[in-house]
Amino acid sequence: MRKTLLSTVVASVFLTACASSTDNADNSSVWPHLDIAVKPDHATEDRVSALLASMTVEQKVAQVIQPEIGSITPEDMRQYGFGSYLNGGGSFPGSNKHATPQEWIDLAEAMYQASVDDSKDGSTIPTMWGTDAVHGHNNVIGATLFPHNIGLGAANNPALMEKIANITAQEVMATGIDWVFAPTVAVVRDDRWGRTYESYSEDPDIVKAYAASVVKGLQGHADAGDFLGDERVISTVKHFVGDGGTVKGDDQGDNIASEQTLFDIHAQGYVGGLTAGAQSVMASFNSWHGKKLHGHKYLLTDVLKNRMGFDGFVVGDWNGHGQIKGCTNDNCAQAINAGLDIYMVPSDWKALYHNTVAQVKDGTISSARLDDAVRRILRVKMRAGLFDKASPAQRPLSGKQSLIGSEEHRKVARQAVKESLVLLKNKQNLLPLSASANILVAGDAADNIGKQSGGWTITWQGTNNTNDDFPGGSSIFDGISQYAKQAGGNATLSVDGSYSSKPDVAIVVFGEEPYAEGVGDRETLAYQPGNQKDLALLKKLKADGIPVVSVFISGRPMWINAELNASDAFVAAWLPGSEGAAVAEVLFGDADFKGKLPFSWPASPLQIANVGDKDYAPLLPYGFGLTFSDKNVLPDNLNEKDESLKQQSAESVAILQGGVRAPWSLQLTSENEYKTVAASAESFGSITYRTSDKVVQEDAITVTFDGKAPAGIAFTRTEKAELVASNAHAENRALVFSVNVSQPFSDDVFVTLCSEQQDGDEACPSGVNIAPALSGFEADTWQSMALPLKCFASPDINTLTTAFALRTSGSGTLSLADVFIQQTPEHSTVLACE
To answer: How many CA atoms lie within 13 A of 418 on its CB side?
Structure first.
């Protein structure tokens, strides 16, 4: 059993939320003044002061604006001189998912040269590029992808973490990028949160130690000669603060912990990361007692900067400033006044820039606050040598494609995979296996590198990837097959578990589909409620008398009692990344299991258990993990009744909710051809697509039709599993969606559903023309529409192959969000069937 939390941390859990005060009363004694490894330097400060004194208001405001590569050009950079820019998840140079490392460098070089060109903005201050390299350089094809943080937490190896961060820095710098938005130091208290896998542990001690290791690996040691040198990047400790402690695990929700608990549990990563010298902090989407962190002056300024002594800069998260009361994405003086130093404003940068300039000039934002923000940005740029280093294309590691996904780097990733695996069950010492056996390998994750890598993998949600998108990577089956071949055994891949010759053992690899923030939030921790296809596979094999080894792919602990009962051995593999073959090294005994649970494993679908809780009674405790020699502790008769299961007849089918929901994928159609969307922006024939924001980050899509040829979009699926348990002919159900028309349509716009028929053919009714309704909507305003299913000949929902298809021969632009099949809601525009 891993050592429990420090007594002071355990005690803090029992503090009532009522003990907290979120006004600006000085409770700063809760927060220490940190002994930060990077000390102020007079020469640097003098240099910053001289440059700051020469800058205009417009040049200063440009430093605090951070657009996204999909919405700016080098010419925009030349004109405005932005202090930084970013690529969001699933955003690539030229909107090309398969952009080469050289294309990343070319964009970095073009942006840099434009930033130091003073012909239009009068400034020669170099810009910097920030990216979410959260488990390796995960946006770039061919990069080494490490296990997600939850798996690394199971390894509990801070030294290994520093190696991983250093490798990540090298691969990032090989593409010309300066700055990484990592480490995430959330301490998750409710595993229903969709970002649980981005957390190392429920134990703040591990998070604190890991934060320091990652910062040192990315930036170098503050007292070493390579600190922020040619092989290092700027790091970001995120998200300040309390993102892992929101009520019900709600993404971007409210944390109501006491201030002492906020520090003891949720701020320990900042103690570790800032002490090690992290130069930037990202503000969090969440609130603390109802007040958004992006506008929280007490926490951002009084605590983080003044009390803790952080002298780097605070960058916002994706349009997080727009969530502050009284703010919009393009107008928010409240954020900078509260202590935000850089607005992350992906697409509304131009309006925000001009509004901020005006607010400085009219005194809404004081010159002193603006100067402080810019001073912090310039200080970090000078510490990072950006004024003195060569341009991105000329830096020592730039263009060294041999670094990206190198064998040396993959070797470290394989070590991380092996140390992350946690053995939960091992009846009669089934593991380790003999590689000379006749082995059946089943489950849809067995030969699926995208699924085993999870979210934040090439695309933002980690969806729409194939094994071909991971050159140099390996699936779990690849490793099993290799071992069997070398030992004279046989490994047969059969996703559905069918076989012609009875195997000696079955390895079933299954688990969660990839997801990222928002989309990954859940109401319960029950795995596959109402559609237990993986459990059926396990039971089928067990009924055939075949010993079953389950390898579970997940971004969090889940309630899997039935799956545990149906397994003879059970391995929590988390999200191992691109080096799936390393799993086989442990299954076959070349290495013993080392991983220990970084999170308590739930005993019921709604159990929220953290070590130190008053009534702590999980199925398996924090720190649990068997080795080959340990005695099995789990019986085969765990309670399988899901008390939280709702009546399926009342369920809705989510199609687009925060992002495209599994099992749906989004296709663009132009004339008679189609393309599956695999990036945050795509152009295809007569249609242009991009993700956009309705309420939160990329929770909507925007589609533009140029009218040169018939075009459309379609949410489709190939999986035939039931979507709802009830008969889907329910008369009161409708296709419900939010729509925003920004450019009127010049022709009819048809919405269609398609169903598979008994003969296997697909039936697609002619559809409903929604153009008349769209023409009556106010421009640039979100409206809710409902199309009764009876308009589509009452299709059976469970036979749907296309849940929403929209097509037009005309021109126009619309945005869509919140697409469901559900009971018709109130306050929707319900279209009559023609």
So the answer is: 19
Residue 646 is predicted with a pLDDT of 54
Distance from C-alpha of 561 to C-alpha of 195, rounded to nearest angstrom: 23
CB under 8 Å, gap of 24 or more: what pairs does 790-795 form? Answer: 790/731, 790/833, 791/831, 791/833, 792/735, 792/752, 792/753, 792/765, 792/767, 792/768, 793/765, 794/729, 794/731, 795/728, 795/753, 795/755, 795/763
Q: Which two tokens stand for residue 33?
A: 């003044």
Angle between helices 42-53 and 367-383 (to 10 degrees): 130
Q: Can you read off the two tokens belonging to residue 317?
A: 């998260």
How many helices (H) and strands (E) the chain has is answered by 21, 32
CB distance 515 to 194 below 8 Å: yes
* Residues 245 and 204 sit within 8 Å (Cβ to Cβ): no
Contact residues for 772 (Cβ-Cβ < 8 A; gap 6+): none
ω into residue 241 within 30 of 0, thus cis? yes
| Rounded Cα distance, 304 and 642, in Å | 44
Cα 696 to chain center, whole Å?
Answer: 14
Backbone angles phi, psi at 53, to 5 degrees: -65, -20
Closest CA to 185 of 170, 164, 206: 206
d(CA 215, CA 250) in angstroms, rounded, equals 28
Q: Shortest CA distance to 239 belongs to which of 271, 284, 205? A: 284
- The backbone torsions φ and ψ at residue 740, rounded to the nearest 5 degrees and listed phi first, read -135, 115
Q: Which residues of the chain have pLDDT under 50?
A: 1-24, 647-650, 728-729
pLDDT attached to residue 831: 82
Q: Where are the beta strands (DSSP E) in 70-178?
A: 84-87, 128-131
Helix (H, G, I), strand (E, B) or coil at 705: strand
Residue 317 is a catalytic residue = yes
Using CA atoms, how far residue 504 sits from 435, 491, 815, in Å, is 11, 10, 53
Q: What is the pLDDT of residues 660-712, one digit of tens each?
A: 888 899 999 999 899 998 778 889 999 999 999 898 888 999 999 999 999 99
pLDDT value at position 790?
83
Q: At residue 79, what is the residue type?
A: Q
DSSP 801-813: EEEEEEEESSEEE
Q: Exposed, middle or buried, 671 (CB in 10 Å: 0-12/13-18/19+)?
A: exposed
Kind and range of the H or E element at 247? Answer: none
Instruction: Dihedral sign for Cα 326, 330, 332, 335, please.
Output: positive
Q: What is the token pair recorded at 216?
A: 């040192």
Count CB atoms within 10 A of the CB of residue 430.
16
- Reference 333, options 345, 347, 348, 343; nearest CA is 343
Indicate which residue of 203, 317, 372, 419 is catalytic. 317
Residue 673 DSSP one-character state: E
Q: What is the pLDDT of residue 27?
A: 66
In sequence order, which residues have a C-beta less than 8 Å from that of residue 224 and are 6 or more positions away?
A: none
pLDDT tens, 425-437?
Answer: 999 999 999 999 9
Q: Six-digit token pair at 402?
A: 């041999």
Q: Select which of 348, 469, 517, 698 is catalytic.
A: 517
CA distance 816 to 664: 15
Residues 67, 77: Cα–Cα separation, whole Å:
10
**Per the structure block, which two tokens stand in for 471?**
């050159």
Query: Residues near 141 by Cβ (< 8 Å), separated by ≥ 6?
Result: 97, 98, 99, 458, 469, 470, 471
**Predicted local confidence at residue 764, as pLDDT:** 83
Instruction: Please say if 231 is a catalytic residue.
Output: no
How far CA 745 is from CA of 443, 812, 830, in Å, comes to 45, 4, 20
213 close to 159: Cβ distance less than 8 angstroms = yes
Entry pTM:
0.91
